[in-house]
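Data availability (excerpt). The following record was deposited with the supplementary files.
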Amino acid sequence: MAAEDGAAADVAMNGEPQPAEAEAKPKKQRGKPKDDQAPPKPKNPYQKVTSEARQRLKAERPELANDLKAMGLALKEEWDKVPELNKEQMQKEYEAEMEIWRPKWAAYKQTDHYKEFFEVKQDWIDGRVRKKLIKRHSKDAPKRPKSAYMIFAGEIRERVVKEVSEAGGGMGDIGKKIAEEWAALSEAKKGDYAETSAKMKESFDVEYKEYRKTDKFREFMDAKAKLEGTQQRKKLVRTKFADAPKKPPSAFGLFRSDVMPTVQEDCKGMGPADLGKKIASMWAEATEQRKASYQEQAAKLKNDYGVQLAAFKKNNTYTTFLEQRYKLKSRENKLVNLREMPKKPKSVFALFKEQHQSEATSKVDLKQKFAAVSDDEKARLEAKEKELKEKWEEDVKAWKESERFKEYEKNEKKAKQELMTQAMKVMTMKFLHAAPPQPPKSPFSVFVHEKRKATGDIEGEKKNKQAKQEEVKTFQKEWEKLDQQAKSTYETAFKEKIKTWQEDVKAFMAQDSWKEYVAEAKRLKVPIKNFLTQKTKALKQLGTGTSSSSMPAKPSGMPSKPPDAFKLFLKEKKGEIDQVEQITGMWQQLDEEGKRKYNEEADSLRKEYDEAMDKFKQSDEGKKYFKDVNQVLRRKRVSGARQKYLKDMPKPPPGAVKAYIEKTSAEIKKQSPDLKTFEIKKQAKERWLALDASERQVFEDAAKAKYAEYEVALADFKKGDDYRKFARVLKPMGKRLAGKGKGKGKAKAKAKAGPAAPPKPQGMPKKPKSAFMVFCKEMTGSGKSLADMAQAFKNLSDEDKNERKKRAEEAEEKYKQDLAEFKQTAEGKKYGREVKVFQKRLRIGEAKTKFLKDAPKKPPAAYSFFVAEKRDEVQKQNPDLKGLGPIMGKLGEMWKSLTEEERSPWMEKEKEKLAAFEKAMEEYRQGANYKSYAKVVGRFMRKPKRKAKAKAKSKATGKGKAKAKAKAKAAQPEKPDNMPKKPLNAMTLFMKDKGLNLKTMGAAWAELGAEGQKKYNEEAKQKTAEYEKAMKEFSKTAEGKKYNRLKAAADKKDREKKAKERFLGGESAPKEPKRPPSAYFIFVSEKREVVAKEFPGKVGEVARKLTELWGNLEASEKKGFEDKAEELKKEYDKQMQAYRESEGFKRYDKALKAIKGGPKKPKSKAKAKPKAAPSGGRGRGRGGGGKGTGRGQGGAAGTGAAAAGVASDSDVMGSDSSSSDSDDSDSD
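Predicted structure:
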């Protein structure tokens, strides 16, 4: 079924049983979400009785487990058996528990976790509502066809259910049984079921295609889109309005809150509806004086709410809410009304892809085929596209006359108008509240204002419309009686007010708030308030323009910075004392004990803030926000520096073409004043192109002379203080404008540029502050400098200072323990590895900067030489080309059009330079600097053999063995210097020969064709044959044999490691039991703590003493420890036997045998001759004496696989010490 059908997507189950690997994945939580941090609600008496009885009934009557109705009846019988006296007692206990629980629940509902859980729960409820809608509409939709497995399961389910129920199994066992029978089914039988399923699918596709055309499907899709839109808008309100002020209660609401506890106490057992009626009657009977008191409180709360709401709407959160609400409404409108709009036809390439999709192996191959298609084929596809497009345009035109499209336009207009209205209100409150008030509209308005002031009218006093009209008529009569001189006085005052207002407006529009307002208005697409009649001119004069660098809106998820200790104190005392200076004095007079409360609270808030901020910075939203902030700050810094320091910087003169066009345009405008600007410029360009070379040369020489003067003036300006200050502003951004010479500064810049350190994980413990830093934190707000704080800390009493140092040391010790535990976690180990990689890269980078600064530079390609030689020529011949991009494009086209012979001068130059570079590099490699660099790189890039030995030995010990095998990777041997290097393939030879890059190589190679590619293919084939021959000769040498043997051993170890990770590395894989301790180690673990007290901090002495005590024990005393060790050993053997019999270990063992192969037959030359010596004879090679268990010949017992080692190449190539472990050696 299609993804958008929705109607039958969840109707039926689908798919075959999941593979074994899928069972290891954690199951998605099903059912209603549960809040694990909420205070648990007490169980009522019925729940208490039935929860205890349920488990007992399941054990006594297993058939109830699968019969919910029967279980419910049985539980009811258990409840009926409880005496009424006990029920009453339990009810009292329950009510007492509820009295304790209700305040906890009310407090918990104010926490952030509850709000987060509420969203999760509401999302689940919304999902259920959507499922119900789908289920209701799916009754009319065609039923989705069953898969082969589901058809088979339906046939046998009844029988399997009966068999499993009789055996006492559950629902899970039924599924497993069906899956087992399906797995045992023959492939032919499975094929029959698959064929039946395919036929059902074909029938379903036809039915569903018809169903999509019905009105029921359209109704369903409309209902689905509307439901989703409503749910998303409600969620938006819940999330974005979390910090909005709550609507205040009415007078009746305040009254109800006051009397509710009393009424509940007096009327126990009364329902909510009856309680409401009771309180309503009490409100009706209340005196007017009492009602007036509540009404006064309600009015005050309402005014406060209005102020808080206005402040909230000024926040960026509300603006974001308006935008997102509009987007949701627009999306719902499109889904409902534009769903059936004709779809745009396919392009030419899409039509070609539709016809040749099966012939192409990849998208690149398809594009190449399309590029090589004939012109006739392209013309045919273009004609088809044009035909489809014309039909589509006709369909769209007809569809736009439908009621659906008219409804869409109506809804879209309404949503946009709503956004614009609300956004303009918010922006007026946010940005324009401090704008200068509107001036009087005329001299008469100045006269009216003066008369009102003289008569004592209160400014802003509310009057009805009729009173205002009467008042204006009266003033109008008086104005008409004035002579012209008096009127001119008011006219002069009017002009002065207008002038003052314009200056105020210009000053206001020069502020950052206006810039932010303009940017916000453009972003929201709302009209900008027009203060001045010549707004465009005013903006241009002010230099504000329309581009502004406003700070990005703080995300709603960004934590707010908490107050410090002094601010907490200030907040507490502000209600008692108005004067801030007095509160500051009180804070300074507080002793350490008095400040402790506020410092602890501030530290707690700061810790929570730091954790939340770290988490926010790691989130995608936080990374984006801080990136945007840095970009805005950078733009502001550069813009401010440019306006401050570069205002006197010389301006570059116009080029020859521009100067000619400016001069000629003035003449053309005089001759033809009716021409438009673009027409004048066009004629001027045509005149320039018509000039001959000598006429152009005059303008070019003049432009060069002016540019030379400009360069001199610019060089002088750059030597001045202003430019140096400007360059200093840009230095933190890595731009070196004031001095581009190669010197110490460049070396430092290179040294600073390096790999970024890995971010510290969130779970990593933070280093605690020292005693002095904690003291400074406590002194925040005191106004003391750092030196004063240091002196104050020094003057502390010894007791106070020691107590502080002790707390700091305890915090440091705890930090070290936490850090050690963190390093053992998966996150800590990963961070440790990242730090090591970072340090390695950093050291190599530093070594490169230190030792390779004088290394020869690799020469550019032939194309670069061509560009350097031809660039000036191209610029002269093509004056219309402006900027580096168009010029480089022209040069690229010229390079492509050159033949092999024409390119040869630059190709030869490249070869000469490359040969000189390789020779210089070869000489440089012999120098001390390069050798020093190579030593540093070698130290990090290869593992010493001694470390490899130690790692190999660690494999033989318990837990370390498993970890080493799981994580260690066999190091590949270093390639010898005389080992032949693999040659380049044909395409790479072509790229190197032509000086191409990776982007253009593919297209150029395809253009060659088979004939052109032949030359490079033959060259590559010849070099490959030479390489293979050289490799054969190299493999016969002692060095080659050794390398091949080491390479084979490393590859073998890698295969063994991968096998172990595959079969024994997963969470569900069997875990190897831990080897038990010996009797001696059991004794040591029991006695170590006692002995350690005698020798504190002396590990060696403790070990020596424990060994001495063990040696002095009697045999009977030792037997107790030996018996314990024996019991542990038996238990270990059982676990080990079960581990080896597990399916995972068997698969691993089988894979290991396949990797190692069967036992090798000893060569005839290496047969051991038996000696008449005791069985403990000395073996040859590693393993020594004993019973010949080591490598080589170990007496009579060492004649098997060990004898094969005699015929090896060890005499020629030596032995690999890193591979000598018995678990990983090649002679196993």
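Summary of structural features: Residues 1059 and 1148 are 6 Å apart (CA to CA).
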